[in-house]
Amino acid sequence: MGEMAKKVVVLACSGIGKTWGALARETAHELVERVRPGVATTICLPRLVINDPEARRLVLEHPVITLDGCPKACARKSVEVLGRKVEQALETIQFYMAHKDLKPDGVAQLNEAGLKLARVAADELAATVDRLAAGEKT
Amino acid sequence: MGVPVAKIGIVPCSGEALPAGTVCRLACRRVLDKFRKDQTVAICLPLFIAGGEEERGFAARHPTITVDGCEKRCAAKATEMFSGKPAQALLIPDILGKRGISMPTRLRVFGSEEESAVQAVADEIAASVDAVLVQTRAEGKPYGDL
Q1: Chain B: closest CA distance from residue A4 (Å)
Q2: What CATH architecture is A8-130?
Q3: Quick check: helix, strand or coil at residue A26?
Q4: pTM recorded for the entire structure
Q5: Mean pLDDT of chain A
């Protein structure tokens, strides 16, 4: 990754009611902490809800990947209300559909299959993060 | 909206980027699933924007308790912006501070080290639920029994 590479913002669902939301958060943390540290970054989604200036600036100035836990798509919509389309919008159930041997469960804490699915999902998203960081479109 | 009237809305900040957000999420789930299961319902904060009138309406008609992980107080501010003033607004650093408990430093995979923080916050939320129920009952509003 060159010095001119952009940060890529990974915004995850904040929901606390569904396994898919927990999978979204875990995938975002895997990307930020393990797969692309220093390139992928995240912020608390609720900061966009209250129109926090620093959070607004981050998502307006950098490419954004949203990871939503349900079709209500809170993460994506929280960016769209700022008048911009996200570069990549995903629902975490898509990862399960591609890896049905890894069935996530749990809300407060994911089960082992869910944690593994988050690692797999983050690995798969690495290429997208790299492209966006390099200034390419998805 | 499919939820009984006798409920208090718990609005966690659930911030993904801070250890306090994880404390918040785990403590709220403990209250919602175990401590005050029949008296509480979760409100996902971003649904105030994405979900529209239904979620805002619920929080406007029912008492809410907001739980925030930092001084930005996103949950309290958003609830007030979109629905109405929360019945109680809790701040995790205050809760831990008055008990002399350190804020966890990890974002995830909490274990025994972080348990005292989660438990303290869950206890405080449960106590707040009880206080709000007492208050609403005293005001003659049918929000359920302890």
Answers
A1: 24
A2: 3-Layer(aba) Sandwich (3.40)
A3: helix
A4: 0.90
A5: 93
